[in-house]
Amino acid sequence: MQRMPLLFALLAIAMTPAAIAESASESTIYRWLDAQGQLHFGNPEQPPPGAEPVAVEAGTVIQPPPKLPPTNKGTRHRRRGVDRQAAQRAKEQQRRQKQCEDYQEKLAGVRSRMRAGYKASQYNKLMEQQRRYKKKVLELC
Question: pTM of whole model > 0.85?
Answer without folding.
Answer: no
